[in-house]
Design a protein that fits this description.
CATH architecture of the largest domain: Alpha-Beta Barrel
CATH superfamily of the largest domain: Metal-dependent hydrolases
Oligomer: single chain
Largest sheet: 8 strands, mixed
Number of helices: 10
Number of strands: 24
């Protein structure tokens, strides 16, 4: 396949007018083009790498924690259809044995789905159960436990290596530092649903934690006398931070300020989407709790607290650009390159580079999806 008449997003975070070649499912050098190859006209729009969502729960009526291969397959199909060609779904705070079963199903799905028209399953982001009651959000408090090395290893083993992030609330346990020191070389340790103050968060980051789950949400407010987790992230250059730019979770001014504070290299756009994404308004469930969805706002039926989002990552990226003033070149990096690097798959995903998987999305000048190419095949 040759894609012509298009502005191609490059590894230097700029758009360059040139052609793209994809052969045998991978990006290739255009100079070796065969005149008989299929040609796709980009019509003067943009070509970007397939997006990578490393924190979301579900869509189209399915949730990753349904624990079935069918759920993962349907989720993967929808995500690919909107330009998200690789995924690392998130778990909820459920009983340990149930989480092990969910992870085992994901490992089996990964083994069987070698090549798929749906998004590639390239990781799992464990949002629970090692979180805090105070900042549990839409997580079920009955299943919250303190971080435990043996249980964490059980999760890693059950997933067959798919678990890439394990979230913790560092203030919950006296052995948090030891946990981080023992596990940080096996999996990324993130701060998630935590009530930690600045000093506690800094201690965790100094011990080796290197990721923050949906910055600003489910953590203490960032104020001038109590900077909390956000301040600790700012002061820890090795820490990457997720942000939900759906127009609901974070004010546009705060999004812009965060990009100035952290820089484009450390921010990862996520959707945190739940099963209502791509579905009509109504009542759904998340982690066993009832959630009411109106438009792209999802709230717990019990208390009105935000309960994930109902917006896919492509729409979040578009919102960041068109409604929050983030440059397109920056937003694309935060939805492609940065998550690929965090997941350790930048050699295969995250840029339009010869040799990498041939996953690309063609956008028009209003950033609407014109075509999705997965492994060199137009979906």
């Amino acid at each position: 396949m040759i894609i012509k008449n298009v502005k191609v997003y490059t590894e230097s975070m700029e758009f360059v007018s040139k052609e793209i070649a994809i052969r045998d499912g991978r990006f290739a050098e255009v100079k070796d083009a065969d005149p008989t190859e299929e040609v796709l006209d980009g019509e003067g729009g943009y070509a970007i790498p397939g997006l990578i969502d490393l924190h979301f729960h579900g869509c189209k009526g399915y949730d990753f924690c349904d624990g079935t291969k069918e759920a993962i397959a349907r989720i993967a199909e929808y995500e690919a259809s909107v330009g998200v060609t690789a995924i690392a779904p998130a778990t909820m705070t459920l009983p340990v044995n149930e989480l092990e079963e969910i992870l085992a199903v994901a490992a089996a799905y990964k083994e069987e789905a070698k090549v798929s028209a749906g998004a590639d399953l390239i990781g799992v982001n464990m949002e629970g159960p090692f979180i805090s009651e105070e900042k549990k959000g839409a997580q079920d408090a009955r299943n919250i436990i303190s971080c435990n090395e043996d249980i964490c290893r059980r999760f890693l083993q059950a997933s067959g290596g798919l678990v890439k992030f394990v979230g913790i609330a560092p203030e919950r346990s006296e052995n948090t530092k030891d946990f981080i020191l023992k596990m940080k070389d096996q999996v990324h340790i993130s701060l998630a649903h935590t009530n930690a103050d600045y000093d506690t968060a800094m201690e965790a980051f100094k011990a080796g934690a290197d990721h923050a789950v949906h910055l600003y949400n489910a953590m203490p407010a960032f104020t001038h006398r109590n900077p909390g987790v956000v301040g600790a992230v700012s002061d820890s250059a090795h820490v990457n931070a997720e942000m939900i730019c759906d127009g609901v979770h974070i004010h546009p001014s705060v999004v812009r300020a965060t990009f100035k504070m952290l820089g484009a290299d450390r921010i990862i756009l996520i959707s945190d989407s739940m099963r209502a994404t791509g579905m009509p308004d109504g009542r759904y469930t998340l982690g066993g709790l009832e959630v009411d969805v109106t438009g792209n706002r999802a709230t717990l039926a019990s208390n009105g607290a935000l309960a994930g989002s109902a917006t896919n990552l492509m729409d979040c990226m578009r919102t960041a650009v068109l409604k929050m003033g983030i440059p397109l070149e920056t937003a694309v990096a935060c939805a492609t390159r940065n998550p690929a690097r965090c997941l350790g798959v930048y050699g295969e995903y995250g840029s339009i580079t010869p040799g990498k998987r041939g996953n690309a999305v063609l956008l028009d000048r209003e950033l609407k999806v014109k075509a999705v190419i997965k492994d060199g095949v137009r979906l």
